[in-house]
């Protein structure tokens, strides 16, 4: 009988020891054991961005986006990571003159309350995110074209402008201060990620940003 009790006691001590190891590991590393096992088994997170902008535009090339570790990571950090981690030499490049604009009167002649305020030529509301709305000459970059602009990020052509002709683009920013402090006017080489077919919808842009945010870990 005493031998049986000893066996039970030993098993109980072993279980307690394993639980203690588990609690120590999760407290120090903040990585659940099941996630650790997943890594050891070669399971990795799919971080590719691949999304059709429009049914006949095809699928964007699948590229790895480095995971941003904090939810408060800035747009600048995300853009820098994209510049460093993706091999942009694989994409066609075009040199353009890039300026910045806002939805406000100084850029568009419209004010809040105007039905057309903040609405691009395509009908998509202006947007600054991983994929932002930009303006271009549609004969040069058709609506729906996705560019990567170093220092700015992904731009989706959704707008036009009377002064935006030929090799010129206009990048959307939320405020005038951002236009002057973050951009101004510069000549820059942009990478053509996907050439558009002349259409872009709000749903298309939202789908791109949903996948972009997930891939960046934001």
Provide a concise account of the structure shown:
This protein is of the alpha+beta class and 218 residues long.
CATH topology of the largest domain: Barwin-like endoglucanases
Largest sheet: 6 strands, mixed, barrel
What level of helicity do the residues show?
Answer: 25-40%
Main β-sheet, spatial strand arrangement: 3-7-4-6-5-8
- What shape does the CA trace take? globular
Gyration radius (Cα, Å) is 25 Å
Beta-strand content estimate:
15-25%
What would CATH call the architecture of the largest domain? Beta Barrel
Mean pLDDT: 75
Kindly report the oligomeric state of this protein. single chain
**What separation lies between the terminal Cα atoms?**
59 Å
The CATH homologous superfamily of the largest domain is called RlpA-like domain
How many helix segments?
6
Instruction: Provide the structure class.
Output: alpha+beta
Count of domains: 2
Give the beta-strand count.
Answer: 8
Identify low-pLDDT runs: 24-72
- What is the CATH class of the largest domain? Mainly Beta
